[in-house]
Amino acid sequence: ALGSREEPEFVTARAGESVVLGCDVIHPLTGQPPPYVVEWFKFGVPIPIFIKFGFYPPHVDPEYAGALQAGPCSTPALSLPAALPCCCLLSPCLHKGSEMLPRCPGEAALLLPAHELGGLGKEGAREARGGGCLLRLHHAHGSSKPPARGAGSGHRCPRVFPCCPQVSDGSLTVLSISREDRGAYTCRAYSIQGEAVHTTRLLVQGPPFIVSPPENITVNISQDALFTCQAEAYPGNLTYLWYWEEENVYFKNDLKLRVRILIDGTLIIFRVKPEDAGKYTCIPSNSLGRSPSASAYLTVQYPARVVNMPPVIYVPIGIHGYIRCPVEAEPPVTLVKWNKDGRPLRIEKYSGWNLLEDGSIRIEEATEDALGTYTCVPYNALGTMGQSPPARLVLKDPPYFTVLPGWEYRQEAGRELLIPCAAAGDPFPIIAWRKVGKPSRSKHNTLPGGTLQIRSLGKDDHGEWECIATNVVASITASTHLTVVGTSPHAPTSVHVVAAMTSANVSWEPGYDGGYEQTFSVWYGPLMKRAQFGPHDWLSLPVPAGSSWLLVDTLEPETAYQFSVLAQNKLGTSSFSEVVTVNTLAFPVTTPEPLVLVTPPRCLTANRTQQGVLLSWLPPANHSFPIDRYIMEFRVAERWEILDDGILGTENEFFAKDLSQDTWYEFRVLAVMQDLISEPSNVAGVSSTDVFPQPDLTDEGLARPVLAGIVATICFLAAAILFSTLAACFVNKQRKRKLKRKKDPPLSITHCRKSLESP
Predict the structure, then answer these.
(1) What is the pTM of this model?
(2) 78 partner at 20 to 30 Å CA-CA among 10, 161, 242, 572?
(3) Could you tell me if 499 and 577 lie in one domain?
(4) What secondary structure does DSSP assign to 597-654, as a single string?
(5) Residue 533 falls within a domain, yes or no?
(6) pLDDT digits over 291-312, tens only?
């Protein structure tokens, strides 16, 4: 060493960084240096914290384990790594003449000195612990400096560790070693004189990885079951443990003699029984890290069987009872047959008897006809394992209450309370008390007669209580309500939150107020912690007296919030209600809708005609869809009224009829397209004073005056014809008389004929 004892050297370093404490040693100029010991002491500590002898591994004080490391061979310095995950230290030399490399905690370094490159082409293997970092350095020599390229199992090289200095001579650093990094890595160095290739394989040390987990299986009874479980790991000294539910298979009494675990992790269960069904878990281990696990379920199918059939079946007298057949089956039971006194039981012959789905018989009211010996035979898809043992049916009196508790009891907190309850029956019943819902933490017991005794009432005693009387036949229940006065309020229930975009409406059902007036407060906060909410992340809002709801605003949209309600009275506060989580609504996303347009009808005119007022118009100039119909409106005063709202969309004219005389009318028309009504058209006015009188029409459509004229004309013509006929007859008679006087009958007859034809 240089100097016998020098003054302390002051080394300054930042917290978290690494520091090197130097120790200069002079080596002989020729030959190898003899082995020597280097010890490092810390002031005030008599025992060295670090001892290094030759090439043997150093001894490090347990308090400094992992925090001290030897420096280079030429300089036995002490390296103090940082506590940070990213740090760089001087690595101990692996070979004389090797170049010093940066190294990180948990890292495995492969150093190939220049004179060893003659072995390129051979494949070696190096190990690294999972979770660390791997540093590979490749040296190449030649007349020209060759660049180096790396190729690995699916990796893009290089992946350089950011905290370590970059090395420009072909080193490869892999961050955070995982099992996916295992495989062969090849370094290729080339120059104008040629190239050299070296391949090495990375083996990652770590806990096993299950590559073939077990799968659910279903087997029949007495068959063998086989679960596979294959894992990979390095080192490969794998052992497998199998568990049934939470118990090691070798510790389960009925199973340990029928199981075998093979070297590859396979579990074999010989001659399975129905009791073997359940969850089986495989856990491979190689003593590194945390072992993984994988589970699968075993289902054992077997015919239906009867288990634990009681020798005596008790059925109550006067009330409904059951005759049950305790069955186990996989697949489930499909049929249960009953025998009574050795003969098949025909249930339909017994009034009030019903066969339930599980095979039990329900008796509405048992009588002496039910007495006898019963057996049952269950069936499923695989058949049956046989008939049940015989069971004798016995009728017994059910229990009945001789003293019933009252409907309600009120008592102050801290006082004693007795609630009576008594029952009788054959056999004599046992009486027990229980609280409905949340159990009571107060000391209470049942006295010999069945009375409930609570020595010191507490808040938890408030609520519904039941007195239960039970014997082998049946159980009966009587209820009462206990109100404990003088406590803090009970927690609100049925909290309901309806969220909007920036607000939420919170409502609830108030709990018992403890005998005093209570008020409420709503507590809320975001599900994700926010800095602006402070250390507790909850805000509270008071609720107006007498209200059981509150609107909470100033919330952020599209955010998850939690809500709870707290009650308080003069004696204290309740526990918080249930916590309800809701999400506020997001901002509405407005999407442009297609423009739907319909303009008003155009050029409405009104013309007087004999039939009425003829209204005509032009269709709208613009409309997105065909016009469905038109609406014609009119008004005489200020109010518009509908004249007709069913004018077809293809029409452009309309007759207004039955108008009042001496009245001024105004008309307008509107277009209807789908559900959209246009603005009204222009207004057209007309007076009904000058309108031609509207004649009355008959059913055939003719005006009455015209019809009257026609009828009059017909009557006139008929009268004229009749008059002409009478006149002709009169003239003929006169001629006949003249002819008789002239005694010329033929001429008279001929002339008469002519006169008759003349009309």
Answers:
(1) 0.47
(2) 161
(3) yes
(4) -BPPPEEEEEEE-SSSEEEEEE--S-BSS---EEEEEEESSSS-EEEEEEEETT--EE
(5) yes
(6) 999 999 999 999 999 999 999 9
